[in-house]
What does this fold into?
Amino acid sequence: MTAEYKVHGNVAVITLANPPVNGLGLSTRQGIVDGLEKAQQDAAVKSIVITGAGGAFSGGADIKEFGTDKAMQEPNLNSVIAAIENSDKPVVAAIHSVAMGGGLELALGCHYRVAAPGCSVALPEVKLGILPGAGGTQRLPRVLGVEPALNMIVSGEAIKSEMLAMLPGQKLFDKLVASPEALAAEALAFAQSVADVRPLPLVRNLPCKHPQGDAYFQFARNMVKGMSKNFPAPAKCVDAVEAATKGKFADGLAAEREIFIHLMWTPESRSLRHLFLAERAASKIPDVPADTPKREIKSVAVIGAGTMGGGISMNFLNAGIPVKILEMKQEALDRGIATIRKNYEAQVKKGKLKADKYEQRMALLSTTLSYDDLKDADLVIEAVFEEIGVKEAVFKQLDAVMKPGAILASNTSTLDVNKIAHFTQRPQDVVGLHFFSPANVMKLLEVVRGDATAKDVLATVMQLAKKIKKTAVVSGVCDGFIGNRMIEQYSRQAGFLLDEGCTPAQVDKAIEKFGFAMGPFRMGDLAGNDIGWAIRKRRAVEHPDMKYSKTADLLCEKGRFGQKTGAGWYDYVPGKRDAIPNAEVVQMIEEHRKSLGITPRKISDEEIVQRLVFSLVNEAAHILEEGIANKASDIDVVYIFGYGFPVHRGGPLNYANEVGLFNVVQAMKRFAKNPLDDAQFWQPAPLLARLAAEGKTFQ
Ligand code: 3H9
It folds into this structure.
């Protein structure tokens, strides 16, 4: 049983004890009901306290239980809350640290609530694509007022208990104690003080009205429209709260329940729940236990003050870690520092950063022209030109100067980290840290594990990633690692689509309608088409048989490198990012098509999306089978956080699971028959073929 029962004098204390966050799984729910039962039967017990062990009151329903029989099994959370409401003896929730989702709903079912300051209070269900399903949409408006409650429910954001306690007329907390340490004793005293109160107060009996009624809910619906674009839950939250204001409590509760069950089975909710667990699972490396000793990272050096080096540096400055940047020339350093300043100043202007914080961060930044000045850094990250010879020179110098035990990292996006490691005498200290541009904004960090990378180096950088607020995923060594290796196939497909009859705008529109933040051609223009050009030139030597559309090379030959040159697949007006289709580019594609003797055909949006997305899926299956990625969900995390894959689809492999792997393979077999495509590529990866044949999914 994951709830403990103890009697202190005449108060029974039920303590949720289901680490890490006292999720309300079946055994905890049963534990609460059993505790209540015992307390009713013990004449010496006059009142009851429910609290949570460890670092949470409760984080809510056990997300890992969703989709299993246990989630629905009695006592379900509504039944637990009913048992509390029907208790003959007063039940007091003693809330601390975290009271979220079902945890907050449980507290709202109690007769009284005593809270510690610093507790994060939220109904975050909307972030999982659902809504509170144990009365949260009905009870929270009754204790906070309709508007504050709806704001919390629709945003899912946590608010500190002391802030909520200050809301005028709030009935959420009966008492806010002075400190978390005081909670246990004060909750016991409070429980004793209400032992004889009858009838017992119930939140469900409080009134729930909004003075503007229908007009307010119409306004609220308009407000959530933007958020609801790909997600049904936010608008449904409005419906459920409106129901709370309209009829009897029981009817509102029934309406909430119906919506909750409906949302739980939507693909959007499945995707969000998958990503919640996937993001947390990504930080776990199968053969690197959580207790692996970590190296201390108190200072960081960055080689290169370009866009990447500057963005990388900002991450550490933001986290309060001193950074020293090295460049070859003073002018380059000056330019780099000016860019960092400009970025921070923009944040100050927007009110996102306080001026004193900006100065504090800049004070942590220093520069040098000499490798010798870097020797004491605990971690050095190289962000120089993507060419193996350049990397060799850098790593040889680093090997010569860095102190023993320093971690030597490369920000390479495609090159062989094993080779780079062996430019040094300490390959165990070398790791890839592939940041995504803009490095101070993008959440993804690909941690590239070389054959020799030491486990404590991996453990250290994974921990550091959390500190700088990145989502880190481990990749093995291969050309392009997880993300860029897959995007290569996606880009090849995008090129073939042009050859066969599409315009860049048509391809981009189709995949953006599917939900991608940006289509492949707009993305190319943003990243710089010259980068892909350089990679293709290298690959042409390494993989001479690899088939590509020539259109991207023709574009680069015209100097249309993208946004930075004001012209790429599209035209750009200075200072704006809007992509304006360009007739010359379309003509260039048409002429190329003619030169190949291809008669253009009309390609449906469905085919465009399938070819682009399934190319990712097939390459991902190879990556998984080769052990480059540790698990399928890591690949989804890479694509969601680094490549703008639509969140509501849950990543390429989650999406493939939703479509059904059998259907994915069938589509690939069709594509393989297209003489203008790459039949070899469309052979299903053995893992994909096997899972499809066995009716299984990527796990
Ligand atoms: C709900 O309540 C539905 C009801 O309305 C209706 C029911 C009928 N369950 O984030 P962290 C695990 S829906 C199971 O790294 P932090 C998490 O997986 C639920 N496990 O820590 C991880 O495990 P592991 C509504 C959970 O300190 C570990 O805890 N509630 C749950 O940065 C640490 O997580 C939510 O949506 C859970 N509910 O943040 C709350 N929550 O170590 C979602 C966490 O194995 N949770 N875990 O990887 C959060 O927002 C954060 O996890 C929290 C802690 C703030 C609690």
Summary: The pocket of (S)-3-Hydroxyhexanoyl-CoA is lined by residues 20-21, 23, 59-64, 77, 98, 100-102, 105, 124-125, 128, 132-134, 136, 280 (CB under 6 Å). The chain has a mean pLDDT of 96.
